[in-house]
Design brief:
The chain has a seven-stranded mixed sheet, sandwiched between helices. The chain has a single domain, classed as Rossmann fold (3-Layer(aba) Sandwich), CATH 3.40.50.150. It is built from five helices and seven strands; from the N terminus they run αβαββαβαβαββ. The protein is α/β, with parallel strands linked by helices. The chain binds S-adenosylmethionine (SAM). S-adenosylmethionine binds next to α2.
Length: about 200
Amino acid sequence: HFRCRSAFKLLEINDRFKIIRPGDTVIDCGAAPGSWSQVAARAINKKDGNKKDGMKGSQTRQNDRDGMVIGVDLQEVEPIEGVLMFSGHDFTLPDTQHKILNTLDNMYANVVLSDMAPSASGNKAFDHERISKLCLSVLKFSSQVLANDGHVVCKLWDGSERKDLLKVMERMFRTVKVIKPDASRSDSAEIFLLGMEFYLRK
Ligand code: SAM
């Protein structure tokens, strides 16, 4: 029931690294058609209606609050239960980021996901440069919105900028990894940068 096969990449990453937990607030950049948001909504337990009151005294809650998933994409996204979607929005624009910040309403996010990619031109170096800019924009925004110990998963088409992106991430996260999920094998240049345990915030 996932909207596309990309779902399995995030499921695999989340299985291995336990990025998204019940009660988390997750931002999904480049969300269309919506399968990562579906996975995230499920992982925070939003869909099961595990609201705070219903979970009182339970040992399974990781956070003492309700989670939420906020998605953003240039494209239209069909509604997903438990997901607040900014369709038709360019993530890199300040206006879009303000809208997300307003929605967070002074809360920090636990996880920022980005599966964003520009439409490929076929010129590898050019496409790499453009997706690297998206990654940088995701990292910059993450440093504003992430809670202590928060995580980032960011798609990159591999190339020369990888080193610098990892350097930026090493200043933000206790653990930084480059991963290639099995579900991503057919996409040759695609890798995911994983930043775990954000530590900049005091
Ligand atoms: N993770 C999604 C899923 O599982 O359904 C698939 C995402 S798809 C590979 C990449 C998406 O990034 C496209 O829908 C594209 O519109 C979006 N995108 C690219 N640049 C963007 C930008 N500047 N702002 C918002 N979305 C962007």
